[in-house]
Amino acid sequence: MKKFVLLFASLIILANIFAQNKERAIGFRGGETFGFTYNYNPDESISIGAILKLSHNEIRFVILKENVMPVLLSHSDHLFFYNGLGVHAGFMRWEKYRSDEFHSVNYCAPLIGADFVVGLEYRFFKYPFSVGAEYKPYVDLFGEKFFSLRLFDFGGTIKYNF
């Protein structure tokens, strides 16, 4: 009986792991906004994404609403294009060296901003993984400068879909 229950539980777990309709994904994003990612896909064409960036001088939490659509269907049904908008909030720390003294002063300030994302993602339907490349420019308010436009945030993603 124990073997039967163990076999049944294993089959259910494997069916969930290798199912093609995945609603959630966790992973990593490389690039200027390097961090942990989470995606929730309530629909085939919509994804709600989150990025948590932790670095030595910054903590940033990004929320994005993305529109998702398959592309190049004549070649592959695994490639998806997405674009979207979002917001972020966090804290930034920086140093300023004083010219009249021989030491630096540390500053810390909250920051908020807006994000845009556009990218391509390849989903391996046989396995629960996906890889992608994206471009995510953003605008910071407050922080080290009152207004900062960051146009060169290119990144790669690897996600586990479940």
Explained architecture:
This protein is mainly β and 162 residues long. The chain has one domain: Porin, CATH 2.40.160. 10% of the residues lie in helices and 63% in strands. The chain has one helix spanning 2-17, and strands spanning 24-29, 35-43, 46-55, 58-70, 79-97, 104-124, 129-135, 138-142, 147-150, 154-161. It has an 8-stranded antiparallel barrel with strand order 1-2-3-4-5-6-7-10. A hairpin with a 2-residue loop joins strand 3 (46-55) and strand 4 (58-70). It is elongated and about 65 Å long. The protein starts with a helix and ends with a strand. The mean pLDDT is 87.
What is the compact description of this entry?
By secondary structure, the protein is mainly beta. It has one helix at 2-17, and strands spanning 24-29, 35-43, 46-55, 58-70, 79-97, 104-124, 129-135, 138-142, 147-150, 154-161.
